[in-house]
Each structure stands twice: as C-alpha cells, then as structure tokens.
Amino acid sequence: MVADELFAARPSDIIVTTLPKSGTTWIKALLYATIVYMCRDPKDNLISLLHFLDYWHAHLAWPDRVLFFKYEEMKRDPENHLRRLAEFVGVPFTSQEEDDGVVDAIIRLCSFDNMVSLESTKGGSTRFTTATVPNSVFFRRGQVGDWENHLSPEMARWINAITEAKLLGLLWSGRLMFSW
Fold first, then answer.
1. Domain range list for the chain
2. pTM of this structure
3. Of residues 39, 1, 31, 2, the one with CA closest to residue 14
C-alpha cells in the first residue's frame, strides 16, 4: 500500500521481485534492479505458489520483459545465469571482460559465503516503514534441498501433492518443460 501511494513507476524502471528467502539478496547483489523473478523449490520456500505462477506465465508471454530464474539452477550454474542477467538488462559482458575474469570475480563477490561474512550483514540493519530488522535475517543457509533438514519425508510428500494440485502438474511433475 505504501508503494502504491508513494511510488510512481517509470518506463525505464527495473524491478526485482521474489518471494522471501528465495535468493532475493543474492539476485540484488548480482544486479541492483531488473525485472527478474527467481523462484525456489516450494519445500525450501513455503509461501504462496499462485504468486509464482503469475510470473511464470508473464515470462512465457513476454520473455524479453520478464526473466525467470530458478534458484536451484542458478546455484548449479551461476556464471551462465549472470551472463543471461547482464544480457537481459542490455549490458552483456564484453569479450575483454570475459577474458579478464569479470564474471568469475562478480560470482565470488556475490557468493553466499562472501555476502554473509560482510560487516554490513553481520551488524547492519534495514529500516522498513514499520520496523527495523537486522540484515542477518536476509540470509538463511543458501543451500538447495535444505528442506530435508527441516521436513519429514511425509511432510515433503504432502507439500509435493499440494504443489502438484495447485499448479495442475504444469511445473513440478516433469511431464512438461519445467521441473525441479
């Protein structure tokens, strides 16, 4: 509501949109702003799936305007995702930058281990309109599949069944082009 009242978007604005604990801080560190949506396996992120589905459909309809990343894929291949991100916002890496190791340097700079060790992460805070929170809350473990340390196999099956039902089997079933 505050954004609706105080923010007027411009055509040149680029927006970062993710669910909490879905790699938001990581994507912001890689790029200050873009129209990028990164989702995460729902067992790692127990939040509304309908929000995610809107962005998936927007990405399918306008792939040149909505870039869709999966956290798990980004963890497997951060270099190529960073290249895609740079191309998407119109500033691809030059051959010279590639040769000079700029991509690898950015990946190291924005790595989970590096970001979590920063003084601003350990001791800083972020002020929102209603509260101030320590920056450390923006980091959990950053591990793919960490849900296994917190959920029983029965809970995982239950979440998978709900996910399958809510998304009509389109995304996680493996029957179509998008699966975890």
1. 2-139
2. 0.57
3. 31
